[in-house]
Amino acid sequence: MSVSQSMPLGGDCPRVAVIGGGVIGLGIGWRLARAGCPVTVFDRDEAGHSASWAAGGMLAAGVEAEPGEEVLWNLASRSQHLWPDFRYALQADSGRDIGYRDEGTMVVALTRDDLEQLRFNYEFQRSLGIELEWLSSTEARRREPYLNTGTAAAYFCKGDHQVDNRQVVEALKKALAKAGGVLRERAEAAVELAGGRVAGVRIGDEVHKADVVVVAAGAWSRGVGGLPEEVRPPVRPVRGQLLYLRMNPAEPLVRHVIWAPKAYIIPRKDGRLLIGATTEERGFDTRPTAGGVFSLLEGCWRAFPGIEELVLEEIVVGFRPGSRDDAPILGPTSVEGLVMATGHHRNGILLLPVTVEAISRFILKGKVMPEIEAYRPDRFRKPAGGGP
Ligand code: GLY
Predict the structure, then answer these.
(1) How far apart are CA 163 and CA 251, in angstroms?
(2) Burial (CB count <10 Å: 0-12, 13-18, 19+), residue 8
(3) Nearest CA to ligand 1 atom 1
(4) How many CB atoms lie within 10 A of CB 370?
(5) How far apart are the C-alpha atoms of 271 and 269, rounded to whole Å?
(6) What is the CA radius of gyration of the chain?
C-alpha cells in the first residue's frame, strides 16, 4: 500500500481542490470545509446544473435493487440509512429545505406480463430483507386514486423516499459557502502534477495549489485535463431525458413516487410532476427527441391517464456518469493526492451521503472504508503482463 493510501494527505487539514461542482463535489467540499480544510470546488459551467439538476432524487435502494447488483445494493442501502442525518445536517448548515418526502414508493403492474415481473422483483427484493407490502389493485388505487382502473397489482416500499435534487444543489452551495469553502464556476480545471504527485489544479494560466485533488466531474471525469492515462476513469455519458409537468398541489394527481413499467413518476411538494427517464448512448448530445418525450409521456399516461390535462413545463436532458461496470469509482489512485469520486451512474443522489463520508474520511484520516473497497479506481487496471 502506498503512502497516499494509508496516511492523511497533507496533514490533518490538507488544501483540497475538487474538480466538479455537482452534488458529489459540493458535498465533499462542504464536509471538508466544515472539518477546517481550505477547499475550492471548480465547475466547468454552472455548478449543479448537469446530472444533479436532471436527477429524479429518488432514495430508492429498495425498489431499484436488481439481481447481480447485490454488492452495490449494500452500498446503496448504507447510504439510504445515512440520508436522514445528512438531510438534517445539510438543512441546519444551509438554512434551506431540501424537499425530503417519506411517503414511500409504489411499484405498479398494468398488464399480466408486468405482473410476472412485479412478482419476480417483489420476491427478489424481499430476499434481500427489504420490507415490502403487496397491494391488490383496489388497495393500490385507494392509495393512488388516479391510478389506471386496469392496474393489475402493486407493491409498496415504505423505506424508499425522495429529495428534491435541485433543492439539494442549492443547499449544498449555501452550506459550502457558510463552511468557508469557495466555489468557482465556469472554471475548467485540469490536474497539475509535480514530482509524480498532485500539486494542485490548473485553470488556464493560473495554478491553484492543493495537497489533494478530488475528481468528481461526473460524465466529464474521463476528459479532465492533466490526468495520467493509467488513472483516467472509464466513465461515459449515459444520456437521460425527463419531463416536468405541473399538477394542482391542492389535489395532486400523484401522491407517491411511482415505478410504472415504462417510467418512474415523482410528485414534488410544489406541484411539479417529474417523469423519467430515457437511457441512451448518444454522447453529450443535449437535444431532446420526439421519441424520448413520447415514450415518457406514454409510459406515464398508461399509469395515470389524467396527465393529459397537465401542463408540460420542462424537458430536461442529463448525462449520467456510467462506468465500465456501472458502479461508482471511489477512493485513492496510484497518483499521490489524487482521489476519485465519480461513476455514480443512476445513483448519484442516493449515494451522496456514503460518498461524502467515505471520501472525506479518506482525505482526513487516510482510511479506505470497507464499504468502498469494491469500488476502488484501480479495479479497471489490466494486470501487469496479463494477456493480449
Ligand atoms: N436514478 C434514475 C435515473 O437514472 O434515471
Answers:
(1) 21
(2) middle
(3) 346
(4) 8
(5) 6
(6) 21
Residue 278 CA to ligand 1 centre (angstroms): 9
Bridge partners of 153, per DSSP, are 109, 136
Torsion, Cα 68 71 77 79, to 10 degrees, reads: -130
If one residue of 300, 320, 326, 349 were mutated to test the ligand 1 pocket, choosing by the most ligand atoms within 8 A of its CB, it would be 320
Q: Which helix H or strand E contains 159, and what residues bound it?
A: none
Contacts of 385 (CB under 8 A, 6+ apart): none
Q: Tens of pLDDT along 197-247? A: 999 999 999 999 999 999 999 999 999 999 999 999 999 999 999 999 999
Give pLDDT tens digits for 309-343. Answer: 999 999 999 999 999 999 999 999 999 999 999 99
Atom index in ligand 1 nearest the CA of residue 348 equals 1
Alpha carbon of 37 to ligand 1 centroid (Å): 32
Instruction: Tell me if 56 CB under 6 Å of ligand 1.
Output: yes
Mean pLDDT score across all residues of the chain: 95
The residue nearest atom 4 of ligand 1, judged by CA position, is 346
In this structure, which amino acid lies at residue 67? P
User: 80 CB contacts (<8 Å, ≥6 apart)?
Assistant: 59, 61, 62, 159, 160, 350
Band of residue 70 on the pLDDT scale cut at 50, 70, 90: confident
Domains annotated for the chain, with CATH where assigned, are 3-53+166-234+325-380 (3.50.50.60), 102-160+236-322 (3.30.9.10)
Give the DSSP H or E segment for 335. Answer: none
pLDDT band at 383 (very low <50, low <70, confident <90, very high): low
Phi then psi for residue 82, to 5 deg, are -80, -20
31: nearest Cα among 204, 198, 214, 201: 214
Q: Is 320 in the pocket of ligand 1 (CB under 6 A)?
A: yes
The Cα–Cα gap between 12 and 362 comes to 11
Would you say residue 11 has pLDDT above 70? no
Contacts of 116 (CB under 8 A, 6+ apart): none
Residue 54 Cα, ligand 1 centroid: separation in angstroms? 9
Taking the mean position of all CA atoms in its chain, how far away is CA 246?
A: 24
